[in-house]
Amino acid sequence: MSDPFFFGYGSLVNRRTHAYPEAFPARIKGWRRAWRYSRSHKRTFLTAVPAPGVEIDGLVAAVPGGDWAALDQREAGYERHPVPDPELVHRAARQLAAQIYAIPQRNMVDRVHPIRLSYLDVVVQGYLDEFGEAGARDFFATTDGWETPVLDDRAAPTYARHQKLRADERSFVDDQLRALGVRLVQG
After folding, report:
1. d(CA 27, CA 90)
2. Bigger pLDDT: 109 vs 122
3. CATH assignment of 5-186?
4. Contact 25, 13 (CB under 8 A)
């Protein structure tokens, strides 16, 4: 029996943030990304929400031996959902079963709380690595919630898996936020 896979659409796209080496770029149908405030974490997180007719890029990666414990701990506050086979398009040379993490609807609250820039930077760095600038621009286009302000915490990152970005990566993120009219707030 082969290992199960997860479909990552946020920080899990950035291979620097995890140790799951068997990973492939993928696309999922019927989901969209959104910034949502999580009651359980009292912060704004990226989540996947069902969206018929929408497709998003991400990364599928094997969970060796089906040992979900470490990943479930990392993704605390999210629930895993099976991804039906026809919804997942990937480059793996075999069929695979995948699951996607999403914040449960009962934990989502309509509250404006800033997105941490150190978190967003990690996500966009992953998309730049996996899908290039066009794919990273598509990340911004296929994500809802950009009316939420972004907390500039680059000088003192608060995101646990923050990564150092190159100057061109920082400029790319900043340019995309400006183009969307996202309000930056200082920490």
Report:
1. 6
2. 122
3. 3.10.490.10
4. no
